[in-house]
Write a structure and sequence with these properties.
single chain; mainly beta; Jelly Rolls; nine-stranded mixed sheet; 4 helices; PITH domain-containing protein; Galactose-bd-like_sf; PITH_dom_sf; PITH1-like
Length: 165
């Protein structure tokens, strides 16, 4: 199931985008379905997108689709690092810390951008932080057209089971 309804939209943050509200273009229903809307990085190819949830969730898949732009200085995202429950990471921390999972968006393009997430690393999630580290064209800026987070909410039984471990 799409976890869009469980995203705390007031807490979503994006760093190094040409537009601070650009995250709605890739996350929000309706907008993310339009091929002409995208998030484009500002100063270089990197970008951080922090997505908090209103409840604990168990993401199982993410869909990441790189943008398609006519600008020769902009290309689709390639390497995306995903961090769990680390809402305030900066660029230096993202570059140095070990993520819960690293995705190769250029490889995922063959599967429609759908990535299966590690079941053990993505349990009891309150925030996902996406670090768009590089792009496929080694260009100055990166473009992302769609980001969809799929999974389910964690109910009381799930949370109690986690506490017993």
């Amino acid at each position: 199931d799409d976890l869009l309804a469980h995203i705390d939209t007031r807490g979503v943050e994006v760093l190094n985008a040409t537009d601070d509200g650009a995250w709605t273009k890739i996350l929000a229903a309706g907008e993310r379905d339009q091929d002409t809307l995208e998030l484009v990085t500002d100063d270089d190819e990197t970008c951080i997108l922090s997505v908090p949830f209103t409840t604990n969730v168990k993401p199982t898949h993410v869909v990441i689709v790189g943008g398609g732009t006519n600008d020769p200085d902009v290309s689709a995202c390639a390497v995306v690092k995903v961090f769990v429950n680390k809402p305030s990471l900066g660029f230096e921390e993202c570059a140095k810390k070990t993520p819960a999972q690293t995705l190769d968006a250029s490889e995922g393009a063959r599967d429609g951008g759908v990535f299966e997430l590690d079941k053990t690393a993505f349990d009891n999630v309150r925030t996902l932080t996406f670090y768009f580290e590089s792009n496929v064209g080694d260009t100055e800026r990166t473009s992302v057209r769609r980001l969809e987070i799929r999974g389910r909410t964690m109910d009381a039984a799930d949370v109690n089971q986690l506490k017993k471990c």
